[in-house]
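Please check these two lines:
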Amino acid sequence: MRFLLALMWLMHWLPLTWLGRLGEATGTLLFALMRSRRAITLTNLRLCLPDRSDAERKAIAKKHFQAYARSVLERGVLWWGSEARLRRLIVVEPQVPLALIQSGPTILLCPHFVSLDVAGVAVMLETSLCSIYTRQQSKVFDQALRKGRTRFRPIKLFSRGEGVKPIIRAMREGLPFFMLPDMDFGAKDAEFVSFFGNPAATLTAPARIAAATGAKVIPVVATFLPDYRGWKVKFFPPWENYPGDDMVAATRQMNAFIEARVLEAPSEYFWAHKRFKTRPPGVPGVYRKAGPNTIPLQG
């Protein structure tokens, strides 16, 4: 892992065009070698995009591996690149909504696209935040990731096991909550809500925290710009009258929003995660037993 980090540091000096193409070549190789993750990705695509042909889903899966590998290599630019370079490469649409963030409790809802770290950097170039952090298996990589994510401003990172109280406290102190809402963490604090027509264990925390704090929910999505020119970070208008009285309906609204964004850039969504690992009672599993060849999850 130290060698990989050293390589990432050396490569962050390269033009983004070179990094992007090298990442895509690496992703093509991983797609051929990592059979278990390829199977998970294709299973997710079969469940979520049943109207596409097998060949179309395989093409999306291959592009996803390319996009994921590219995002890992480009992460070196996020961790070590100069602020001036990042501001050139990150195009924010329309802009980081500082006035809205500073007006009261805010949830920045960021779905799991491969470039989600770019969205975090776009926010941290302007203001501090709080978030939930999943510790990485490698201590060396974990330390590098934490340092890279906090180099512009101090941020408060909480573990999922701490619950929502420290998050709510940080929000009331003025920090926006940068939230990644769309992974399967089991049935606890989740409801089975449709995701592309499939029951998915989905955290109701965005709706519950918004209801408890009166927070506005501002979605943000990061994707690649064409021709290796950098990234686009798009902030959407705050959801009106959210969450209302029905937390399950509000959670379904969130999933519907994510579905629409996925269809806009299908290869950049994080399909390699077992999104449907937790099943409703009596419903059989959908994934074959995974082998040892895994890739690090985002979080």
